[in-house]
Amino acid sequence: MKFQPDRSNAQTISGYGPGWIGIDADKITHSVIIGSGGLRQPWPCARFEDLTPEHFAQLAGLETELVIFGSGLRNRFPPPAWLAPMIARRLGLETMDTQAACRTYNILASEGRNVVAALILEV
């Protein structure tokens, strides 16, 4: 039996710390949306308190099966009413602190899942 390391074609999170994450070879210092299919775009919210219903409507428009929401330094949940566009599309959302979201995204992306991570990067 031959063993080979798992390889993924998805972009991966290579590291993280307060106020930054590494995506492949790039260091990102602002909140960001990334996807296993190559999506990478700024997400205009520096803190959890900056979030609005429009942020989740934006996520509902993405072609994905699951959104991992990294809520910052600690786990916080958006108001349920803000998730209505996602629920209408039957789009899954998992909420956790940003570091846990980074790890979870990497696992799901490496499995070939169509996953998006919306990550708040707080200092």
Q: Which class in CATH terms?
A: Alpha Beta
Structural domain tally: 1
CATH fold-type name = Hypothetical Protein Mth938, Chain: A
Distance between the terminal alpha carbons, to the nearest Å? Answer: 47 Å
Mean pLDDT rating: 93
- The amount of helix comes to 10-25%
Order of adjacent strands in the largest pleated sheet: 5-4-8-6-7
CATH 4th-level superfamily: MTH938-like
Beta-strand content:
25-35%
Number of strands: 8
The SSE order reads: EEEEEHEHEHE
What's the number of helices?
A: 3
CATH architecture: 3-Layer(aba) Sandwich
- Mass-distribution shape: globular
Q: Over all CA atoms, what is the radius of gyration?
A: 14 Å
**Could you name the ranges where pLDDT drops below 50 across 5 or more consecutive residues?**
1-5
Biggest sheet, open or closed, and with what strands and sense? 5 strands, mixed
What structural class should be given to the helix and strand makeup?
A: alpha/beta
Note down, in words, how this protein is organized.
The protein is an alpha/beta fold and 123 residues long. The chain has a single domain (30-119), classed as Hypothetical Protein Mth938, Chain: A. The protein has helices at residues 53-60, 84-88, 98-110; strands at 13-17, 20-23, 26-28, 32-35, 40-42, 66-70, 92-96, 115-119. The strands form 2 sheets. It has a 5-stranded mixed beta sheet with strand order 5-4-8-6-7, covered by helices on one side. A hairpin with a 2-residue loop joins strand 2 and strand 3 (26-28). The termini are far apart. Residues 1-5 have low confidence and may be disordered.
